[in-house]
Amino acid sequence: MSIQNQLNEASSLTFNGPVKVDSPELDQLIDVIAKDAEERRNAGSEELPYHAFDLIRQSRLGALRLPVELGGGGASIRDLFYVLIRLAEADPDVAHSLRAHYWQVEEILRNPDKERREQLLGIVAKGDIIGNAFTEISSKNVGHLIFETTLTQDGEGYRLSGTKYFSTGTIYSDWVIVMASTPEGKPVSAFIPTNRDGVIIEDDWDGIGQKLTGSGTTRLNNVYVNREEVTFIDETKTPFNSFLQLYLQGVIAGILRNVVTDAKALVQGRSRTFTFASADTPAADPLLQQIIGQLSSSAFAAEALVLAAADTLDIAVNEAVNGEIDFDLSHEASLRAAQAKVIIDHLALQAATLLFEVGGASATRQSKHFDRHWRNIRTLASHNPIAYKARAIGDYVVNGTKLPIREVYF
Asked: Which of 134, 174, 255, 304 would bridge with 128, disulfide CB 3.0–4.6 Å?
């Protein structure tokens, strides 16, 4: 059966409720997404992975964190990151594209407004996907809630105008969270459907990696917004956003799993040895085995760090009162996410280079696509430079200075 036929067959399946962690349905979903990615890659296609997102809607993977009684998968944050790593192993573009969605689900779950919370969770429970329109290119410092995108009064509602960049995943989404400022400078968010008049989503991302995340431009041309779709942001809330940072490390950990798989296949598929080889076959060569061992260990370490940091997020979220996360617990989660990044980025970039040490010159052929791992990791790691994280950690260890607030969102 061809991969396309497998996709068509999977699309016709009826899921018995949303997929759950370690379920056969989740295994099948991830397997089909991996095969779809492989087929497009081998065909040299840069077609966006719409098939994968159709399956994600159908399986309601986006509802993984919702309680079972609310139509979700009942997963913990640790469970979610475990699934994220597996999904990133299958297709890092797809996994990355869900970052804003899962972040928003966390925000909704903690919303103290019961009526609004249940309304939005109902949207998630039926399989809809949420995107983001947050980042702007301006002279304002990143992390401050001041936006050039404006929300102005228009009768009983509002009008939204502006341009957003790096809108990862929004092209696949049914809804989008738009961050804006009122004429008085107050930060607000608008939760609107992506098909509303005036919302234009462009696939103009030209990065070296994560090429199919749809991380392009979102234009908001005098978009009408209903009053109930607007939330005025409380800037006094606990200001750390460790979930968003750790999410990127989860995607990288999934890529590392794939690096190990590719390295293993390279060694097993070779019959010729190198000139100074230590064995008659590559598979028996102790030096190549050592490199594979290093790669496997790096992948294990990255995954372990992500899951350990996810545990601190679980603790922080589970202790929230009226939607408010304790500052110290939130700081702990932020610290662990930062520490994970400092180590994982280094391990991952090194591993993506070591992969070529087991394959020889033939491994550099474009048809092999092995360069995608380094490009994808480099792109993900560039979201927040390691130097800033490491310095802040060092200042905390030496001087007890808390990590900076207002972390970068996207």
From this structure: 174
Tokens of 97: 């594209």
What is the gyration radius of the CA atoms in the chain, in angstroms? 22
Rounded Cα distance, 56 and 232, in Å = 31
Per-residue pLDDT band at 241 (split at 50, 70, 90): confident
**CA-to-CA dists, residue 291 to 132, 189, 375, angstroms:** 40, 48, 20
Strand partners, 225: 158
Q: Which residues contact 209 (CB under 8 A, 6 or more apart)?
A: 372, 374, 375, 376, 377, 378, 379, 380
Q: Are 101 and 84 in contact (CB under 8 A)?
A: no
Q: Which whole number is the average pLDDT over 317-322?
A: 92
Q: What gap in Å lies between CA 247 and CA 132, rounded to an integer?
A: 15
pLDDT reading at 353 higher than 70:
yes
- Distance in Å from the first CA to the final CA of the chain: 40
Task: Return the closest-CA partner of residue 81 out of 70, 65, 94.
Answer: 65
User: Any residues with CB less than 8 A from the CB of 374 and at least 6 apart, and which?
Assistant: 209, 349, 352, 353
Flag whether pLDDT at 24 surpasses 60. Answer: yes
Give per-residue pLDDT as tens, 25-41. Answer: 999 999 999 999 999 99
pLDDT at 1: 41
SS (H, E, C) the chain: CCHHHHHHHHHCCCCCCCCCCCCHHHHHHHHHHHHHHHHHHHCCCCCCCHHHHHHHHHHCHHHCCCCHHHCCCCCCHHHHHHHHHHHHHHCHHHHHHCHHHHHHHHHHHCCCCHHHHHHHHHHHHCCCCEEEECECCCCCCCCCCCCCCEEEEECCEEEEEEEEECCCCHHHCCEEEEEEECCCCCEEEEEEECCCCCEEECCCCCCCCCCCCCCCCEEEEEEEECHHHEEECCCCCCCCCHHHHHHHHHHHHHHHHHHHHHHHHHHHHCCCCCCCCCCCCHHHCHHHHHHHHHHHHHHHHHHHHHHHHHHHHHHHHHCCECCECCHHHHHHHHHHHHHHHHHHHHHHHHHHHHHHHHCCHHHHCHHHCCHHHHHHHHHHHCCCCHHHHHHHHHHHHHHCCCCCCCCCCC
Q: What is the pTM of this model?
A: 0.94
Q: Where does the pLDDT of residue 149 fall: very low under 50, low under 70, confident under 90, or very high at 90 and above?
A: very high
